[in-house]
Amino acid sequence: MKNENVYHGKISGELVLTNLNLIFVTTKGTFKKTNITQQYPVNQIKLFDGKAQAIPGKKGDIDIYFLNGQESFSFWNKETFFSDKKAENEAINFANAINQLLTGRTGGSISPESNSRSGANIVTESLKGTIDSVKGAFGFRSNSSKTIEEVAKKCGFCGAPISGVKGQIVFCRYCDADQQL
To answer: Which of 20, 43, 81, 85 has the greatest number of CB atoms lying within 10 Å of its CB?
Structure first.
């Protein structure tokens, strides 16, 4: 999947989604030499509640949360030179394609209206879970009533069996992919 009308920061270029990477390409120079400016492995995109953390906004932008940071891209309509409904739909299409690639599920469309939780809420919930885990490791009681749930499933990239605690990021020993249970 690709779109040629994308901004990443103040740089315009093309956003390409492959089965392995999300690539931002820009053209520079007199002879339009193509340079790959950024390459992001899709197996580094966070999963939360069974959904990829590629969250479209209402103005044609998309925030993608990786294990080691966050990246934002803005789509724009070439005909009007502004973000509009067409740009918003393209952001939603990219978010859904990323979600399908990582989870294998086509249903449960992601849209700005269906995404009631902000990125700050997601980070807060993740940190709370981490703090509770650390407290438990040192013998302190957690205020949370959640129990630890063991999960076993297949690797989303190679199909090998993986297991661990729900919400934990595990490393597949067969294909070297990191993913969240």
So the answer is: 43
- The pTM assigned to this predicted structure is 0.57
The helix/strand count (H/E) of the chain reads as: 2, 13
Question: Do 92 and 150 fall into the same domain?
Answer: no
Residue-wise DSSP of 67-124 = TTEEEEEEE-BTTTTB--HHHHHHHHHHHHHHHHHHH----S---TTT--S-HHHHHH
pLDDT tens digits along 15-27 = 999 999 999 998 7
Residues 42 and 71 in one domain: yes
User: Based on the domain organization, do 97 and 124 belong to the same domain?
Assistant: no
Question: How many distinct structural domains can be found in the chain?
Answer: 2
* Phi and psi angles of residue 144, each rounded to the nearest 5 degrees, phi first: -80, 140
